[in-house]
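Class prep. Write one:
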Amino acid sequence: MIATPSRAQGTRSRETRFNATADTATAARVRTEFVHAWSGYKRYAWGHDELLPLSRSYRDWYGDGHSLLMTPVDALDTMILMGLVSEAREDRELIATTLSFDQDIYVKNFEITIRLMGGLLSGYQLSGDKRLLVLADDLGARLLPAFNSPTGMPYMFVNLKTGKVRTPRTNPAEVGTLLLEFGTLSKLTGKRAYYDKAKRAVVEMYARRSKLGLVGSWINVETGAWTDSSSHINSGIDSYYEYLLKAWLLFGDEDCKRMWEASVRSANRYLSEETRSGFWYGEANMNSGARMSTHFESLAAFFPGTLALSGDLVRARRLQTSTYKMWTTFGVEPETIDYRSMTIVDDGYELRPEIIESAYYLHHFTGDERYREMGRTFLRDIIACCRTDVGYASLSSIPKHSQRDAMESYFLAETLKYLYLLFAPPGTVDLRSHVFNTEAHPLARSGR
């Protein structure tokens, strides 16, 4: 039987109060801000990967003439969930009629999988447009050569046209954040290789954990040897943990359940730390457990949500309180802080969704209104600091209030989606029947 969140966690989400006036108004405001950003994309970047919100131009990840429609694919399911019917229809036609993966470019397997394959699969499941599944299948076939390493762990880059690979040095997140998408594609197409190759990659990574049960930051997929022994939940490892849990929830894979339970137990023992500034997860040597750093990234703010999804609400609440302090201390959350001194290490803000994602999960599972209040703070500050005339811009420096000419596709796929869902009517997405990938694309448990 496929596991559901309640079975997996031993708890059920509490009935949440829905204030038909305040919550509806906030959800509507988020929807308005999505339309604002999407309209800027349509006007200045249509047919390209991303909007440049300050120069009112566009950026293609792999150079002019090689658009992969990052923003349109990433944003499609957000439009559908928000009820933006005409926008979603127009977007779907753009994708179905112009997106081609027959391009002689080396792409990053991880990013293309979570953004494009994930977006195409969720778009298909929500709309029923089989053209999106055909595109996802074509993409999956072109990405499969990445797994042809001696260990079965994927190379970082693969050429979409030739199947050639490069860059054997990779990290746990790039290896372990593929199974939800390849597994769903396998279920929908009946092609077992998709599931098997992505599953083997995870198993091979897990098999190389240390005696303490920790993984390092960098590994060589040809030799299987670690090249960096620092362990943490920051970028490079983060979603490795997330997908161990979610692969169990999505597919009922008992191996993934076992790997998640062992891995999170080690992370809680060796990485977590109580300090005067709160409860955090730091960096430790994977072999000795010795503390190496007290840096915490905005990307690591996903972990309260993952803990909540697993049923560990005590740690989830405590860590979310700390990450919220990271936000309110500086006005917006910096990319990286030192949590012992509560000082900024990297002062940018990249329109990240993770802290909002965790507030969404915690509100869902506890019904505690404090998490919606957090959401209102996030929305207010993002509008105040990052809104431009044609979209939203990242911040190059929070203290200087200086904007950077970038609006990543995940701002529409994740940041605004989780903000919307935090205030949308209960049941807008049913977590008993869907699991979000790490790019916030909801994938159906049944595979239908």
